[in-house]
Write a structure and sequence with these properties.
The protein is α/β, with parallel strands linked by helices. About 50% of the residues lie in helices and about 15% in strands. It is built from ten helices and eight strands. Strands 7-6-5-4-3-2-1-8 form an eight-stranded parallel β-sheet, sandwiched between helices. The chain is globular and about 45 Å long.
């Protein structure tokens, strides 16, 4: 039963193609951003543990959207204690910025999706060997789509997710380079900053999802 539960979560993340990374300084703002992104069609949310009240946000969202197969996850998970607490709060996905074998073991033990950070080809391979479901290429701001294309050449089976600097405007470039899914932060999470209208977050999320869907469809043509 647990295996099927994890499979459904992983399928939701991969099918949507977008993981929204919520790293904000205010609890209420973060919760509103998460809900607005979900209204835009997002199926995967990462609430970083650096966000105030992150565990409460994870619990609230995982409870409220339990019947909608929205995958709520914890980010910046750096130790097994945080990993386990995140899971008990309802997280179905654990994300770390670095290769963190203990986090991956905890995720696999309780059948949560694991996304673990890497940058070099050696780190990518080590992350896969440690049992991560998806490899987070971080920070992708310091590189570009060419890097993913280059890494994917000798490692075509590696499920890669760039994280940093991803927008709807460059989504097709990341997908065409070999990304499995895209980690998106500020483009969506800070869309309401100018006027406090969270509808902008909803629209940004919908636009991002559409860009990924179009890029994937073009690949099949």
């Amino acid at each position: 039963m647990l295996g099927k539960y994890k499979i459904s979560a992983l399928d939701a993340v991969i099918t949507s193609g977008v993981l929204v990374i919520v790293r904000l300084d205010d609890h209420e703002d973060a919760l509103k951003v998460c809900k607005a992104a979900i209204r835009g069609g997002v199926k995967a949310i990462e609430v970083t543990l650096s966000t105030p009240g992150a565990f409460d946000i994870i619990h609230t969202l995982s409870t409220e959207f339990a019947d909608e197969n929205v995958v709520i996850g914890a980010g910046t998970v750096l130790d097994p204690a945080s990993a386990y607490k995140s899971i008990t709060c309802g997280a179905r996905m654990l994300v770390s910025p670095n290769l963190n074998p203990e986090m991956i073991r905890t995720a696999n033990r309780y059948q949560a999706v694991s996304i673990s950070g890497a940058m070099t080809p050696s780190e990518v391979v080590n992350t896969l060997e440690a049992g991560a479901d998806i490899v987070k290429l971080f920070p992708s701001e310091v590189t570009d789509q060419t890097f993913i294309k280059t890494v994917s050449s000798p490692l075509p089976w590696a499920p890669l997710m760039p994280s940093g600097g991803v927008t709807a405007g460059n989504a097709a470039e990341w997908i065409n380079a070999g990304s499995l899914i895209l980690g998106v932060g500020s483009y969506i999470t800070k869309a309401a900053r100018k006027d406090g209208n969270y509808e902008h977050v909803t629209q940004a999320a919908a636009t991002m999802l559409s860009a990924v869907a179009k890029a994937r469809q073009a690949q099949k043509a």
